Amino acid sequence: MHKSMEMPKLSLPNPTGAAVEWAVATQLVPYEQAVSFMEDRIAAIASGEAAEMVWLLEHPPLYTAGTSAQSQDLITPDRFPVYQSGRGGQYTYHGPGQRVAYAMLDLRARGRDVRRFVRALEEWIILALARLGVAGKVSDERIGVWVERAALGEPVQSGAVYEDKIAAIGIRLRRWVSFHGISLNVCPDLSHFDGIVPCGITEHGVTSLEKLGVPCTMGEVDSALRAAFAEIFEL
User: Fold this and answer.
1) Closest by Cα among 130, 101, 124 to 228
2) How many C-beta atoms surround the C-beta of residue 172 within 10 A?
3) Which residue in 53, 153, 188, 217 has the most C-beta neighbors within 10 A?
4) pLDDT by residue for the chain (235 residues), tens digit each?
5) 115: Cβ–Cβ under 8 A, 6 or more apart, which residues?
6) Which of 199, 221, 225, 228 is catalytic?
7) Strand, helix or coil at 232?
8) Is 129 exposed, middle or buried, given 0-12, 13-18 or 19+ CB atoms closer than 10 A?
């Protein structure tokens, strides 16, 4: 299942070498509770009272609207609770079977480069997917991490490439401390994405490790994420 990996294209370590705290929620975490926790934690990080942190969790089914969300992209507003989020991006879905990783990192120590930070988050996901035997990729036009697929039964031009989104990225910074983070589709109910236009993109679909034929436990995904994080953020 696991494949050997090349070294990451970039790294964004904390030069102080301070340890990043990890936490894993064992039950579904309500969205408001998660946001409240992150608000408190990043304030403590900014003031030097707490260490950086990655929080791994799952939410109950819900939609969130980022700062660029368009109202027409919320197709079925009464299907699940909808939360306005201060993160970047548009509408996205969170729910059981999707691993959310909230990354509360101090960019004052990591270079104060937002674009490089987003690239590092993308590389983190790609390296984790590689450990699970999946080739992820990024796009110059679309944020997030994507996988190629065959267009099943669809007439296509020779050489055409179809891509589905497997992981989303949405962050916010306060006093140069990041919060929100990434979400990776492990085995969610993909029909739940039908209530929105995910990230405002209509010409591509969404997928999951399960749909790709890569059955993983959430623990295996967490192990891959933690190992890949070390290569990017803890060198």
Assistant:
1) 124
2) 17
3) 188
4) 433 334 445 889 999 999 999 999 999 999 999 999 999 999 999 999 999 999 999 999 999 988 888 888 899 989 999 999 888 788 899 999 999 999 999 999 999 999 999 999 999 999 999 999 999 999 887 788 999 876 444 444 555 568 899 999 999 999 999 999 999 999 999 999 999 877 555 667 899 999 999 999 999 999 999 999 999 999 6
5) none
6) 199
7) helix
8) buried
Residue type, 121: L
Say which residues have a Cβ less than 8 Å from residue 145's Cβ, sequence separation at least 6: 122, 125, 126, 129, 136, 137, 138, 165, 166, 167, 169
Q: Can you tell me whether residue 230 is helix, strand or coil?
A: helix
H-helix or E-strand spanning residue 227: helix 218-233
- By three-state DSSP, how is residue 71 classified? helix
Residue whose token pair is 């942190």: 53
Whether 199 is a known active-site residue: answer: yes
Question: What sign does the dihedral 15-136-21-40 (CA atoms) show?
Answer: positive
**8 A C-beta contact, residue 199 and residue 169:** no
